[in-house]
Amino acid sequence: MSNNSIIAVAIDGPSASGKSTVARLSARELGFHYVDSGSLYRGLTWKCLREGVDTEDPAAVIELVNRTKLDFFVEEGAIRFTLDGEDPGAQIRSMPVQERVSDVAAIPEVRARIVQHLRETTRFGNVVMEGRDIGTVVFPDTPFKFYLDADPEERARRRHQELAQTAGDTTVDNVLASLQRRDRKDSTRKTAPLQIALGAKVIDSTAMQAEDVVRIVVAQVRGALSAT
Ligand code: DC
């Protein structure tokens, strides 16, 4: 397990595989803190864009990351953070951040720094953390690893539905192309590519409701805890 008696539940998978909903609901059900690891990569990407730092220039990104102070706090069951005292809020979901976050997430020095921050979130207590490398890199020793997947078309349909509420006129085909571009980058990068962790339970959620997936996650964690 991660840190003495602290429990970390790792939920990995590609974009729009349902990780966020499942991780958030599982955390609530278990009384653990929810951590969205992608929000750290997005937050630092937002900061780069705001300061005019070219995300394709690793040295400049590393310099920004090294001088940016992250402070973590708990809000409504989730672990959140500020960057140099500022909360980027919903701006981390904007299209410019979306299109560049894979560049930032591919830089090994940035990943090392973020992995350290993610491990330290357990000082607040037990966590359910979603991402791409939680079971492989951040908490490789946790017995609670899940890999969520769904058909690309279903993932695009779900993401399109989410985006329709904020970003209007994009098509499912555009969303599918963007998801596949990002999946390709995330799965082929040299450092901590998206892959199924050893021992992870793989769940294909294409034809499942989020609540059904949550039930599987919660039952596995509760089952293991009650057996100890
Ligand atoms: O999960 P998300 O879409 O918010 O992730 C944003 C980006 O960050 C995505 O390109 C993958 C990357 N990421 C990562 O490399 N490792 C993580 N643990 C979480 C996200």
Plain-language structure description:
The chain has 228 residues and is an alpha/beta fold. The protein has one domain (8-215): Rossmann fold. The protein contains nine helices and seven strands. It has helices at residues 19-30, 38-50, 58-67, 95-105, 108-120, 134-138, 152-167, 172-188, 210-226, and strands at 8-12, 33-36, 70-75, 78-83, 127-131, 145-149, 201-204. The strands form two sheets. A five-stranded parallel β-sheet has the order 2-5-1-6-7. Strands 3-4 form a two-stranded antiparallel sheet. A hairpin with a 2-residue loop joins strand 3 (70-75) and strand 4 (78-83). Helix 2 crosses helix 4, helix 4 (95-105) packs parallel to helix 8 (172-188) and helix 7 crosses helix 8 (172-188). The longest helix is centred in the C-terminal third of the chain and has 17 residues, at 172-188. 2'-deoxycytidine-5'-monophosphate binds at residues 15, 37-38, 41-42, 101-102, 105, 131-134, 182, 186.
Spans of at least 5 consecutive residues whose pLDDT stays below 50 are none
User: What's the CATH first level?
Assistant: Alpha Beta
Overall geometry comes to: globular
| CATH architecture annotation | 3-Layer(aba) Sandwich
CATH superfamily: P-loop containing nucleotide triphosphate hydrolases
CATH topology name: Rossmann fold
Helical residue percent? 40-55%
Bound molecules: 2'-deoxycytidine-5'-monophosphate
Number of strands: 7
Average pLDDT: 93
Q: Give, in spatial order, the strands making up the sheet with the most strands.
A: 2-5-1-6-7
The helix/strand series, from N terminus to C terminus, equals EHEHHEEHHEHEHHEH
Number of DSSP helical runs: 9
How much β-strand is present in the residues?
Answer: 15-25%
Kindly name the structural category. Answer: alpha/beta
Profile the largest sheet: 5 strands, parallel
Radius of gyration: 17 Å
Task: Please report the distance between the alpha carbons of the first and last residues.
Answer: 13 Å
Domains (count): 1
